[in-house]
Every structure is written in C-alpha cells, then in structure tokens.
Hints:
With about 100 residues, this protein is mainly alpha-helical. The chain has 3 helices and no strands. It has helices at about 1-25, 50-75, 85-95. Helix 1 (about 1-25) runs antiparallel to helix 2 (about 50-75).
Amino acid sequence: MWFWIIMFLCNLLIPVIMIVVGYMMYKHPPKKINAVYGYRTSRSMKNDETWKFAHNYCGRLWFKLGFILIIPTIIAMIPFIHSTENVVGIVSCQVV
Length: 96
C-alpha cells in the first residue's frame, strides 16, 4: 500500500507543478524580458506587449491543463490500490 501511495504522489507531481507554475506565470510574470526564466520564445521576447500576452496566455493554459490532467491520473491509479508492487510500478510508468 505504501508503494501505491508513493507512486500516486509521484504521478501527481506533474499536474500539480503545472498548476503552480501556471498560476505564477499568470499572476506574477517576470517584469522585464529576460533570457533566464519565463516563457522564452523568439516571438514572445519581441516586445513588452507580446511578453505580457505570452505569460498571461501560457499561465492560464498551464493552470487549466494541470487541473485537467489530475483527473485521468487519479482515475488510472484508483483501480490498482491493492495490487502488487510490480503491477503498480508498471501502471505508474504508463500513466506518466
């Protein structure tokens, strides 16, 4: 059972990180165009207007997709709660 819990939490990492990063990009985008962090593409770095639009759009998209990805992750793992470690490991690798 402990292995299932650990694998379940590991599978939830990606959707949760997408939610957190999406929220941060949407609510607290980088103030200035930089080459270190943020949504850095050649088009988004052209001027301040495209920089702000890219972070607004990408942040909202990641936030929504993070919540959408949580649902199939949970649905895929629930049937295997009392399965063996081998089965849980195989299912976890296929969920990610």
